[in-house]
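Sample A.
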Amino acid sequence: MFRWALKDVIMVGIASLVFGVIYLGAVHFGLLLGTLLTPFGLAVLANEFIFGVWFMAAAFAGYILRKPGAATITEMIAALLEVFMGNFYGPIIFVSGFVQGIGTEAGFALGKYRRYGWFPLVTGAFGATITSFIWGIIRANFTQLSWQLLCAIFVIRLLSALFFSAFLVKILCDHLTKMGVLNSYPIAHDTLHHTFEKEHQ
C-alpha cells in the first residue's frame, strides 16, 4: 500500500493537470456567478455552489490509487498548476490545496485505504468541507459574517462537495473502470472482487 509505482506517479500527474485546468475554469465561472448574484446580495455564496469542484482531484486520485498521501499530493499539485496557469488568487491557493487535500484524505484514512464504495468519498467530502471551512474562517475572516450566513455557506459547500467530489467522482471512476482504463490500479481489482461476490451470493 505504501509503495508507489511509476504508473501511480503518472496517474497523479495526469489527474493534477486535468483537474488543474478544471479548477481554473471553475474560478472564472465563480466570478460570473458572483456577478449574477450580486443584485440579490448573495455574491458571497457564488463559489459555494461549485466549491466541491475544488475537491475533485483529491477524491479522484484517492479513490483510484488507495495509497496514503495520494489525495493530498494530487490536490496540491493541481492547485499549484492552477496558479501557474493564471489563477489570480496567487500562491495562497497552494495552501488551500493542502487543506482540502488532507480533509479528503481523512475519508480514505478512516477506511484504512481499503474501504470500497461510497464511504471514503462521502466521508472525504465531509472532511474537505470541514477543513476548508476552518481555513476560510482564518483566510477570509468569516467571523464577520452572521451565523445564519455561516450556516448557509457550510451547508451549500457540503452539498456541493457531496455532488462533485463524491457522486460525480464515483460515476467517473466507475465508468473509466468499466472501460478498462484503470485495469492496473486497485480500483479495478476492488470492482472485480465486488462483482464476483455479487454473482456468487
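Sample B, a different protein:
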Amino acid sequence: MNTQSDFLCELCDFLYPRHPYNGQLTAEHLLFHGDLQEFSQRENYICNLQTSGKISPEGAYKQIHLLWKHLKLSKKAIPVD
C-alpha cells in the first residue's frame, strides 16, 4: 500500500511540478507566483490537447486567452513599490 502512495506522490509531482518562490515574500507575490505556475501548467495541457486533435485551434486560443486575462488581473493586483 505504501508503494502505491509513493507512486501517487511521484505522479502528482510530475503532473503538477512546484518550484520555490525566490522573490519578495508578500501575499500578493506568492499568489501571483501560484497563478503563474497554474497558467503554465494549464497552457501546456491545452497545447497538448490541441496538438493531439482533441480540441480545435480556435478553442485552444480562446482558453489560453482567458487564462492570460486571469494572469494579467493577478499581476495588476500586486501593489507597485
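Observation for Sample B: The chain has one domain: 2-76.
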